[in-house]
Amino acid sequence: MERTVLVTGGTGTVGRGVVERLAAGGHRVRVLSRRERSGRGPGTAHRGDLRDGRGLDAALDGADTVVHCATGYSGTADLRQARRLLAAARRAGVRHLVYISIVGVDAIGFGYYRGKLAVEEALAASGLGWTVLRTTQFHQLVVRICALAARPPLALAPDVPVQPVDADEVAARLAALAAGEPAGRVPDMGGPRVERLPDLLRTYLARSGRRRPVVAVPLPPIGAAAGYRAGRHLAPDGAVGRTGFAEFLAAGGGR
């Protein structure tokens, strides 16, 4: 069934892939953007700003599905923006909103995560049909962490387990969910392997041709760090991703 889908954050790491897949599937795709889009790509650009709600009603007019990939700089910003989007979606008669969240938002006491959980709760209470997909961290985030750690002569890395997932694979899952019926919270999605961050840093250094001694730094067993130590941000039962971190780097990811 052909749908009219608005994608927020449609120029971002995951959003681009969602737009491409939905367009390839024959859906009418709109991309919400605060600025004029540069270059050409699938989807129709619609000017709108989740920060103040400008342009949302026009962008949502006639849309039956929304994929919400946009994110703010904090949990409170995420919640404010989501509330504006939900209100506009109700006015427009949107029947299905798909939201990407993070594994562990209900188990780790981190402000950004608490905001994501609050968005999930607002969506469930909105009266709209909804689907939530929680994923583990993207390879791109691990690359950024490794790049920062690799700057000094001594590379320090938190000694935590990670299960990075490929953003393109997440995009494919989100597009499939958007093409289907509201499903509530669907199974979490993670990368193919759980590994230690210091080991991924060593892989990153080897791939980039840099020599650095790597020191694994234990996290304290308190606060949010305790949740990461315990692996509450992992999805071992949802290890459906196919591309691991080494494969992502070998394919040119992270450049």
TrEMBL record:
- Signal sequence span is none
Report the residue ranges that make up the NAD(P)-binding domain in this protein: 9-138
Note the InterPro entries from the entry: Ergot_Alk_Oxidoreductase, NAD(P)-bd_dom, NAD(P)-bd_dom_sf
Q: Which PANTHER family match?
A: PRESTALK A DIFFERENTIATION PROTEIN A (PTHR43162:SF1), PTHR43162
The protein depicted here goes by the name Uncharacterized protein YbjT (DUF2867 family)
